[in-house]
Amino acid sequence: MSNFISDLPKVELHLHIEGTLEPELVFALAKRNGITLNYLDESALQAAYQFDDLQSFLNVYYSGMQVLLTEQDFFDLTWAYLVRSHADKVRHVEIFFDPQAHLERGVPMAAVVEGIVRALEQARQQWGLTSRLIMSFLRHLSEDSAFETLGLAEPFRHHLSGVGLDSAEKGNPPTKFARVYAAALEQGYRLVAHAGEEGPASYIRDALDILGVERIDHGVAAITDPPLMARLAQERIPLTVCPLSNLKLKVINHMSELPIPQFLAAGVCVTINSDDPAYFGGYMNANYQALQEGLNLSDENILELALNSVEACWLSPEEKAHLAADIRDHGHAYGVVLPS
Ligand SMILES: Nc1ncnc2[nH]cnc12
Ligand SMILES: [Zn+2]
């Protein structure tokens, strides 16, 4: 691991907290909650992490999270992620959670949100690691279910910065959630959505034009649509790309295929993130490192990607300026300087 990457201050904008559930914690929580698992041990579970596409991953992801039942479980899950992220020099994180995947198992919204928020608050007090929380709707479920979830979130509204859209993309276009997004906007939520991961570039357009999102999660399919690329660059609409995820889910066959150099050259505000790091082979440092090696990126490119994440995040302008200065100082210490 290069020191330039490992010591670089980072911002993570695309992270599913349920996707940070490491095999070790699956077994510990199963034991605590009296749940019998279908796997003999941690290595047998890890061996199941071979995916052909997004759906094959989602099957394992939804099955794994069944060990999460109590507020303490969600605290422990989130805290374990924050410890790893702090070690990776992550200074700010915007976290997705999937309430419907817990509500349908009888876990109350309060246990989920309060457990996550307690860990986020502890990280802020202990390390100054800041965060935002984004409630994601599962796009394979109905519009009615998304509306019901939005209603159940009302008592926790003050903990939630935005809403997102995830799960199986193909066949579940953004248009299905147009009315839910309009209602969320009305309630003051910021809006993001997964689009153009396995789905077409037209889903990215629809997420922008019909849902009104300000940021696209993944968005790699934009590379197939030059006018869309020009628009993303012109409007500086951020893309939260997840390199190891794209590789593991076979969105690309090799890291050298990820269009990061093209996005940077076009002036798109592209960012690097870990998505579901327990399943895809690494957290933030591992994603930056695999990307630099696979694409022969310069340290200047890496610095630009880190600064893009600051631009794209939801901190205040003052907090952003402070973090960007720390990132530029880190570059200076290594002789890596970008025009401001
Ligand atoms: N990469 C991903 N795409 C869609 N839904 C997800 N849920 C968790 N990870 C996801
Ligand atoms: Zn994701």
TrEMBL record:
Annotated catalytic residues: E197 (proton donor)
Entry's EC annotation: 3.5.4.2
Identify the GO cellular component terms for this protein.
cytosol
Which residues are tagged with the site Important for catalytic activity?
H218
Taxonomy, superkingdom: Bacteria
User: Which residue windows are coiled coil?
Assistant: none
Q: Which protein is depicted?
A: Adenine deaminase
Q: Which organism is it from?
A: Oceanisphaera profunda
